[in-house]
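Allow me, if you will, to draw on your knowledge of protein folds for a short while. The matter concerns a single protein, recorded as an amino acid sequence and a row of backbone structure tokens. Could you please explain, in whatever detail you think fit, how the structure tokens follow from the sequence? I remain grateful for any guidance, and I place the record below:

…
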Amino acid sequence: MNFINNIQRRDFIFSLLGTSAALVLNPYKRTLASLMGSPSVIYWAQHGTPGKNIEKVFSMMGGITTQFSNDDIIIIKPNCQWWNQGTANITALRRIIELILEIPNFSGEIIIAENHQKNTADSRGWNYLNEINNDIHAKNINELISYFHNKGYNNVTKYHWLSTDKGGNRTTGPQEGDGYIKTNILYSHASRSTPMTYPIFTSSYSGKTIDFKRGIWEHGGYTGQDFRFINLSSLNHHSLGIGVTASVKNLMGVVELPGNEYGRIENLYNFHSMGLEGMGGALGRWMESIRRPDLNIITAEWIGWGNRTDPEKAAFGQSILASADPVALDYWASKYLLYPLTPINEETQYLREFNNPDNDLPFRRYLQECHNEGGGKLNENEIVSSFYDFNTGVNTQNDDNGINLYEAAFPNPFKTYVNISFKLSTTSYVWLNIWNLCGQKVKSLINGREFSQGNHTVNWNLQFDQHLCNGTYFACIQIAEHSAVLRIQLLR
């Protein structure tokens, strides 16, 4: 996979995944527009149970503790507007929550939050008894929350964001209580403009108020603590007007949407009424200006190739995919899962065309405009997929760039040394540098030395690097215009 060269400072780090880098820098101040010189990574596990696929994906990303701290407030946003294949897989959601609760000394909380465009939280995906995509302990999200409460985990709660036309409040900040903030940040497209909106809401468990842009508010002021945001979606054909719905469109359940697709926000349009391309652009602008998810996860256990609720129009995808980049994730999941699993016959040919993100049809245009506004990568040459198949037990990476650096560090985690191995498809000049989570280069191991075709191993002995702290680092190898990145963990 070809990448743009000149990976500078933290550029490549934030586009890799929702790593603990977000614990260092406020995520709402991150932008992807400045990260175009680095690849977006898709982590994909297939053919395990939903729980096993979730475990594997987090393992591939370095483990749950590299994503979350033990005092985090974690917001998980599923899709509660629909059910069956239209909602996030309940078993996958359960396992995510369990992994977080298993973090040693976890004292934080998990809030499942959604604006499903209806007046009551106890409707549609919240309480529909799913025929597929359910769990042995729960058939919907309400039942799942009750399951955790019955086990004594009262720090797992829910919140139903309400648009102002459905009983929600307009607020200017936490001091005025819960509701939606309407900012002065606008996105304009085809003579229409929409404001960026976001929710402010109070945890029923801790009493802390979450400002979706600025972080945690308590006792009359911002505490300086941020929260973590998981965008948890499904993968489905939406309509001929939209094409595919997955990670990007799942964010429509965070913003205010009065009046649904014909609604206004005072004298302006809402996201739905911006038209197809305008909707994608508005979501890209929202991520640039309000908040970007720390981690996007698609639960593709069942995939709706025909619609979002009819099990007869769903395929068994048996997959979990995750990335920090929702545009790249949606492109990859639709091209390599939804499109191939759409039946091939005369009646479904039009669906295959609309489910293929390479065709110049609504879904591609929607993603393109989101990309244009800084929402993420859409060039396949800038996307890397790390894939694990439970049927074969094999890890693979789409690396036609001549480098293979995947899971090639030992020991990892490491204390005093680590061996970093790589394979070259041709004789090349190699650069190998180590970066920390702040985007600082902390070590240069290879600086433009020629290596022959084949397998090579470089030893990094920390005898002269005792000043380095425990934590996550990235080994970045470059040859010519190609790059590959490996996560390594220092644990003395």
Summary: Residues 11-161+183-200+223-389 form one domain. The first strand starts at residue 40 and ends at 46. The mean pLDDT is 87.
